[in-house]
């Protein structure tokens, strides 16, 4: 919590338990000049295992969002592990959660997707943070573009192990059994298994092949769904912006961890950027 700034004369959001959740930075508001048709998209961040500098930079990005856009889409694997309990909020992600709640207070519409590391969210995000949490894919309109959005894991897995992990970690029995563990034990176990969830032993060449397979999947989906103007995914850690047909795109914002890559979607154009570069 040492990195969380203290703001005097600030507004505060109350959780349903009546406890203070998140401070609103002094003067935080949406700039009148920000286009309603601008969306910031952030891919795999893996906060908790990432370099602390990446986490501080991510918090800097969140602080800048109200002056940049009216909407933020977090594409999954925001945390290296997240699991939602009925009465317990994990300690390590709290500084980031507080900043996301402050963005919602400031009028930014935030939506979060679960990835293979943090798919197990639920009502805490929606009721206490004001952030819709999508465990699977969703369809939405982003900057006027009809979009299909998903983290991307399990769609193009070629190895049997990856397909098994994808199914097992989603199964209600697996989730229910894990919830019976004490949170300290559960998070310790998740830290031991994190490499398997990430397929951390994959080489750069294998990751490039995965990115190519994801692009093929996106192109095929755009062919099958002519009403879509955008397919948005993450997971491969490889930034991609591909115009499959005039005005119809596949976008992967890349990885925040290490690269600090993100994307901005507007009605007129889509851009891949690297922080601290701004639109």
The major pleated sheet works out as: 6 strands, mixed
The DSSP helix count reads 7
Mean pLDDT: 83
Low-confidence stretches: 1-27
What is the strand content?
Answer: 15-25%
Full CATH superfamily name: Metallo-dependent phosphatases
Content-based structural category: alpha/beta
Overview of the structural elements:
With 279 residues, this protein is an alpha/beta fold. 33% of the residues lie in helices and 21% in strands. It has a six-stranded mixed β-sheet. Residues 1-27 have low confidence and may be disordered.
Gist?
The chain is an alpha/beta fold and 279 residues long. The chain has seven helices and 13 strands. A hairpin with a 3-residue loop joins strand 12 and strand 13.
Descriptors:
5-stranded mixed β-sheet, disordered N terminus, alpha/beta, 33% helix, single chain, 279 residues, Purple Acid Phosphatase, chain A, domain 2
List the helices and strands and how they pair.
Blueprint: E1 12-14, E2 20-23, E3 38-42, H1 52-68, E4 71-74, H2 94-105, E5 109-113, H3 123-129, E6 133-134, E7 138-142, E8 145-149, H4 160-170, H5 172-179, H6 183-198, H7 204-224, E9 230-233, E10 240-245, E11 248-252, E12 261-266, E13 270-274
Parallel strand pairs: 3-4, 4-5, 5-6, 8-9, 9-11
Antiparallel strand pairs: 1-2, 3-12, 7-8, 10-11, 12-13
